[in-house]
Amino acid sequence: MWETLAQAVINGLLIGGIYALVSIGVTLIFGVIKIVNFAQGEFVMIGMYISFFLATQFGIDPLVSLVVSMPVLFLAGVLIQHFLIRRVLGPNDMPQIFLTFALSLLLLNLSLMLFTANYRTVHTSYSDEAFHIGGLYIPVAKLIAFAVAMALSGLLWVFLHTTDLGKAMRAASQNRDVAMLMGINPNRVFAVAFGTALALAGAAGSLLMPFYSAYPFVGQVFVLMAFVAVVMGTLGNVMGALVASLMMGVAESLGIQFVGADSGLIVVFALLLLTLAFRPSGLGARRGR
Amino acid sequence: MSGNMKWLWLAIGAVVMLALPQFVTSSFAIDIFIRILLFSFIGVAWNLMGGYAKQLSLGHAAYFGLGAYTSTIMQVNYGISPWIGMIAGGVVAMLASLPIGWLCFRLRGPYFTIATIATAQVLMLIFLKFRDFAWGAEGTTIPNLGSAPLMMQFEEKSSYYYVVLGLLVVGLWITHRIEKSWIGYYLVAIGEDEDAAEAIGVNAPKVKRDIYMISAFLTALAGTFYTQYIYFIDPATAFSFSVSIEAALVSIVGGIGTLWGPVIGTVLLETTSALLQSWLGSSVGGIQLTVYSLILMAVILWRPTGLIGFATDVYHRTIRRKPARA
User: Fold this and answer.
1) What is the ipTM of this complex?
2) Membrane-spanning regions, if any (chain B) (predicted)?
3) Do A228 and B103 touch (CB under 8 A)?
4) Which chain B residues touch A234 with a CB distance below 8 Å?
């Protein structure tokens, strides 16, 4: 019993690390630009395909291909912010929600056209390896993914707290108008925030590749989790997103273990709906916004 | 448009719509017309909440699915006619909209949208688990009785056409009545600025709750009709995210918060997808939604008022020579 429980918690934490990369991206974009990026999951998917093609065409290990997927997606983020998002910033939610939503539909269906719905996997030397500690089982690929995810989250934290640009981003997320009055260039800050968020999604994609299949709908799985984590951890709060993601991973894993194989998501959504029901004011800032 | 002209156009429209199946006999074409009418109707139902009050739900599949399941369970397990089941489904959806609305309406903007997605997902997951009386993930086919108008089953596709045409007319009539009443103005005020609307005495929670119930009821009717039309139900189809998407999409593309917006949007999107399908066959997966999303992006970036706003602009600029509204 205790062993099953501990194993479920470990499994949950390991996958929660990936959720964290996705949800930190969502929360970073929301914090700085005040936009919910519904397409975040599709960028995880793109990260996965980048790693898949680098692995199958050039034999590059998916973990190494992180150095390609992250900059490529950073650049994509800067361009998307510059050419699309910038045009819909304003007090009205509708264009913002539906622009990123349209982007998500576009990327998903383009990848369906280009890559078909087939599942693509990359088999690495460590894909089937695992550590056995006591009666517990820790897959190497997931452990590496978790460790890198935590390291990247830590790097982001250092970046946000020590560099001028990072401080500018935090200032913009706390009070955008005042930050602008203090001479922060919003275009630059927004572009870096969007780029960074997408780079994190790309990293999540590459880290997933050794133990997860790439297919056009894969992003939806992760973005759904990220939304739950982001809402529970307070939109715009990086630390909250990180902690909530790990919690969501554990909740999902416990649901699968103790409620039923198809019930992981039920537990997660139940948690979300309960939070929304009892602590709507605890979400985001004043008045749930 | 003057009053008389409006009635003339409506009369011409009605005659054309009623006569259409008599002239178009191709089953492919009738199928497209039925899809256009159905998604116009779903869009009209969504638009009440999403368009006028700007509550951007992406979870209307919840009500579509509840309508579909209520009538199908009543029909398959108890032999009750879907005509009755359809109304029962509407009532179930209305009742479900109360707790869901209570939960979601306290949230604003993207929080609201995320919460609506979650509620529809939860319902889908629940119906995946209900194996005893709702067939679980495999779903079920609906017994084909041939010609049984009392069981909402027809041999002629044109009969389905008239049923869904009737639904759309009801939806448009309700929207028209709401648009012209005080509640319509309240909705628009809520959509513009909820705090300001409350400050001038609009009981926003009550108005939103009432309209959400009507919106849920109508969406559930569409669910029953669709299931009867395709003779099949399963959680993935009944609670399909794409139903939620399309409801919102057609309204935004056509013109959010306008009577005819969802209809215009559906005509454009469904015609486009039918043309794509006949050019490319169904070989290229994803092409349809790729084109949809490009249209949606173009509308949001260049014509946020939708096609209706665009048409009004052109009309005022070229024909009436009046200054166009923004």
Assistant:
1) 0.84
2) 7-24, 30-49, 61-78, 84-104, 111-130, 159-175, 211-233, 245-268, 280-302
3) no
4) none
